[in-house]
Every structure is written in C-alpha cells, then in structure tokens.
Amino acid sequence: MKLISSILSATACCSFIFAAQAQENYSLWPRRPIELEQAQRLYTQGKDDAQVLALLSPFVNKRGLAGREARHLVSLIRTRQYLSTSNPHLSVHTVRRGENVERIATAYNSTAELIILINLMTNPSDLKVGQRVNVVPADLRLELHLEEHELTLWDGRTLVAAYDVLPSEDLKNDKNEETSLSERRGEINGAHVPRASALFASSDRVLTFANGIQLINDTHRAPKKAYVQMQRKDLNELSLLVRGGARLSVVRDERSFDPFATVETKAQHRKKSH
Q1: What is the pTM of this model?
Q2: Which of 41, 90, 207, 260 could form a disulfide with 215 if both were Cys (CB 3.0 to 4.6 A apart)?
Q3: Which parts of 165-237 are beta strand (E)?
Q4: Phi/psi of residue 270, nearest 5 degrees
Q5: Domain check: are 179 and 228 in the same one?
Q6: Do 235 and 195 sit in the same domain of this protein?
C-alpha cells in the first residue's frame, strides 16, 4: 500500500518516472521486460543511441508502466537531438539582406527561440548578410492522453518527447478532440512578456490552444478555463519544440484514437515515408 501511495503521489506532482523508480515499481509486475533493462543499462553506459532506441521501439506505443518507462527514456535521447545540431531535419540557411531570426523561423516552420538556441546566439538581432545559420523545423504534433496524465510530442510516427501532466477536471468527457496551438506567450511573475523582448527567453511559457485549453507550469495560478499543468522546465522545453498552429489531439477514448485520421496528417506521413 505504501508503494502504491508513492506512485500516485508522484503522478499528482507531475514528476518524471525515472528509471530507478520504474524498476522499483515493477515489484507489482510478474517481470520487467528485459529489453527495458538492457536499454537503461546501455543508456547509463553512454552507448550508441540507435541501439537504445531500437530496444525501446516495441514499447513506445504501449499503455501502462512499460510504455511510460520506454517513452521517458526515448524522450531523454530525442529531445537532446532535436534541440541541437544533431536534429535529423537540420538545414543550413545563408542570411540574405533584410532577414532576421523571426523571418527565417517563419520560412522554415521553426521558432526564433529554437534557432537562437541551436546556434548559441548571444545577439540574435546582429545577423550579417552571408552568415550561415543552422535551422530546424518545429513542425511537430502533440497528443494529450488524459487517462494516462501524459503529453507526448511526435514527428510523424517518431516519438520526440513525453511529459507527465495534470489536467483539470473539466477536460474529462467521452470524445476525442482535435485543436491547434494559437498562442505561445511569455510571463514573468504573472506579467506578459512580448516575444520581441530580450526577457522573453527567460520567461515562463503559457501555451494556448484554439479550443481554449491552456498549458501552464505547476507554479502558475490555475485559470478558470480548462488547463493542463506541467513542470516548469518541461513546458519551457516544449515551447522550444512547437510552433504556432501545431496540432494537438486531446485523447479521451484511447480505443478510437487514430493520430493519422485527418487528411492533412496522412499526407504529411506519406511524404515522410517516401
């Protein structure tokens, strides 16, 4: 009973299920999948990421503890890749006259913050004609799994990140829902910070979707409308990876959920497959 209570408490606080915790919790199971043990050992030893990801692949779409542990470990690897020059979709852009970081980000379906981070820019307003800039798209989609208290981020069928979340009660009903990201806002001590401000990079993020759902951090005062709480570091990281218009699937019925149900997403997946 003490172990079960600790699991529930960790979930309520929106904390990650670390590998050590997951291993302890498998005392409730007949056996922990050997592939997860091997993947964790290889990751800890700093072995080849591709080998670790291959071991985790069969579990990424599974519900329950095995799936959560696999998604957590995949997330540690893939977010590092996607927030660096190791991003598999990286392009090199040559700056032209009149361009700034925001304009380049728009052209590549990226975000200014992501470009600034990847290029380690200390003064992003001082771009020079002919300068070469690493650019990656932020064209990813989100899935909010309410029963699992988990938010996942996908590039087609590839899992990029997984976060523990705490949804508000008024989000619960019996229908799945599709929406999109309408605003990425910065706040410091509750005050709005414009994206053009030098303080935006250090601000806390609030993401608002077209259906009114807000993603807020766990120190933010809960709004009256529907919301989802995340750890501050997770939300700020997520904000780097998604751009305005990003698709969000609100999953209430796992059995009827098809992430590729829309014509647009199927077309994108076919393009990636080729």
Answers
A1: 0.80
A2: 207
A3: 166-167, 177-188, 191-193, 204-209, 214-217, 227-230
A4: -60, -40
A5: yes
A6: yes
